[in-house]
Structures are given as structure tokens and as C-alpha cells.
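Field reference: sequence -> structure
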Amino acid sequence: MNDSRLYKLINVFRRISAEKAIVYRCFELIPEGGFVVQSADWIRLPVDSDAMRQHERQLWEFFCEEAPEQRSGPSASIEEAIAAFDAEFGN
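Structure field:
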């Protein structure tokens, strides 16, 4: 199937502490608009390069396996999409 939908990847960061953060992997749907969160990656110091590579690989595996908006419905704003993701997955 040839899906011509376009997506814009947006990384949104939340600092949890001086040693922890979350990177929300968000997509903007183009041209219809709306935002979805594909995943949220926890980053801890010291940074583990193997874990970072795994986060990146998982992002693209999820993206290729299923359209991001099929995992969760689009939200009108990126903040709403992150709040919905956190509510569902407990971040």
C-alpha cells in the first residue's frame, strides 16, 4: 500500500531531575494537522550510548510497523497529545 501521508517528527523534552529526563517522540500529521506521541524515552545520566541507539531503532521500527495515529488518536495540540500519552502509559 502506498500511503502518501506526511509526518513531521518533533522531539519534546521534559527534565525530571538533574539526572533524568524524558524525550517524547511526537509526530505532527501533515496536511490534516494534529499531534500524536509515538513513544517516550527515559534518559538517565550517565548516558548509555547503547540505550540511545535502541531508542532510535525502536522509534523507526514502531513508525514503519504502524502509522503513528493508529497507536493513539491525534490531539489538537502537542501538549494535549503528551498529556494523553502520560495518562495512558503513566509517565
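Note: Strands lie at 6-15, 20-30, 35-44.
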